[in-house]
Specification:
38% of the residues lie in helices and 14% in strands. By secondary structure, the protein is an alpha/beta fold.
């Protein structure tokens, strides 16, 4: 009632022709409109990378932007790094340029604090800043009292930095994730392993899986034509190390079978394989390139970091009707149903046996295709997860801290 009375008085003062307050009429009208009709669905996405590049951003929330708009949300996305930084971020050297871009990101975040009041929700993906303690997160949650949705899809509390950025890693603080979890209004995790860790610090945790847009992007299905088999893998230079255990098996099989081993990545691997084919990752051709595979592989090591991964490679393969062969690590065992829509291999012997059966045509890959696609459509697609994603911005959630 007090606010309504104040608004009424201000309007009367500024609309009276003889009033000395007529000059501030525009400001008063803005104030009144903002207070009487406050926006209730405004989101600020604070993200590490430019939009449209990083898989963790594209497949966790960017592909929901149109859905947010259709549900009445307004939003802005503010990357920490810019497009130029991405050109040399993972290259050797360029230390001065990298430091400058990191410092520039800090400066941008500082000025963005002055716009925080405009938003109802602050969606932070992984971290607000690349280095240092979580100062921005603390200010947003504790000083500005905003509803923070903290989202991550890796075990980011563990040290796991690219060797090309080892110096900058000295300034990272890996306990940040635990602090931000405790301050957040809600925590969005890519799988149960991550969610179990987050629940140590916050009860409002949502398992929000990485998903595939099976209607607008991964909307085609592999057509098998009985040609030479192509075994495929896609990823980045940071995950290509997981192929090391598979290389001796492929070298052995090369002596008996004629096949292709296709690697789609941001950097060409140095594998001594005559079957190796390399395609640089290209957003414009990524679906066509993936469809060159007959079967996709996702080997992993059994460590804490790998357990936090969200099975993105398997999701991509299977969404296109390409069965996947995976290690029994983390969420992989939930995505792949062994011998139904793919295979789960627990040892080098099992990997070799499965690949051998495929190369000998003992296994009809086409018969696994529909089941692989259906699994993603029903459980790991944008369509199946839309309600879950929108619930991140729904009440109630208990206030924490």
């Amino acid at each position: 009632m007090r606010l309504a009375s104040l608004v009424t008085v201000l309007l009367q003062l500024t609309t009276n022709k003889n009033s000395r307050f007529t000059s501030i009429r525009p400001t008063v009208f803005y104030f009144c409109e903002a207070r009487m009709n406050p926006p209730s669905k405004r989101i600020l996405f604070l993200v590490p990378y430019p939009l449209g590049i990083a898989p963790s951003q594209r497949f966790r929330f960017e592909q929901y932007f149109d859905i947010l708009k259709s549900n009445g949300f307004e939003f802005d996305a503010k990357p920490y790094l810019d497009d130029k930084a991405m050109l040399f971020l993972y290259d050797q050297g360029n230390f001065i340029h990298k430091v400058w871009k990191v410092e520039l990101g800090l400066l941008k975040r500082f000025f963005q604090l002055f716009t925080i009041f405009k938003y109802d929700f602050i969606f932070i993906h992984r971290e607000a800043a690349a280095i240092g303690p979580p100062v921005f997160e603390w200010l947003i949650a504790k000083v500005f009292r905003k509803k923070v949705i903290f989202d991550f899809d890796d075990a980011i509390w563990l040290k796991n930095t690219s060797s090309t950025n080892s110096v900058i890693s000295l300034f990272k603080r890996y306990r940040n994730a635990e602090n931000v979890c405790s301050w957040a209004w809600k925590v969005s995790c890519g799988n149960d392993y991550l969610a179990d860790h987050a629940r140590k610090f916050n009860k409002n945790v949502v398992v929000n899986p990485t998903t595939i847009d099976t209607e607008n992007l991964h909307n085609r299905v592999k057509q098998y034509a009985g040609e030479k088999i192509t075994i495929g893998w896609t990823g980045t230079h940071s995950t290509i190390k997981y192929l090391d255990a598979l290389i001796p098996i492929l070298k052995k099989l090369e002596k008996e079978f004629d096949f292709n081993f296709l690697v789609i990545a941001d950097r060409k691997p140095e594998f001594d394989l005559k079957s190796l084919q390399f395609l640089p990752w290209n957003k414009q051709t990524e679906i066509d390139d993936l469809l060159k595979m007959d079967v996709g592989v996702m080997p992993l090591e059994d460590d804490k970091w790998a357990n936090g991964k969200c099975g993105f490679k398997a999701l991509q393969y299977m969404a296109l009707g390409i069965p996947a062969i995976v290690s029994p690590i983390g969420v992989n065992t939930k995505i792949v149903d062994h011998a139904a829509n793919g295979w789960i291999c627990n040892s080098a012997e099992e990997w070799e046996q499965t690949l051998r059966q495929i190369l000998e045509k003992q296994i009809e890959l086409k018969s696994f295709s529909a089941a692989a696609r259906t699994k993603i459509e029903q459980h790991y697609s944008v369509k199946s997860n839309t309600a879950n994603f929108l619930h991140l911005f729904a009440h109630p959630a208990k206030e924490v801290g």
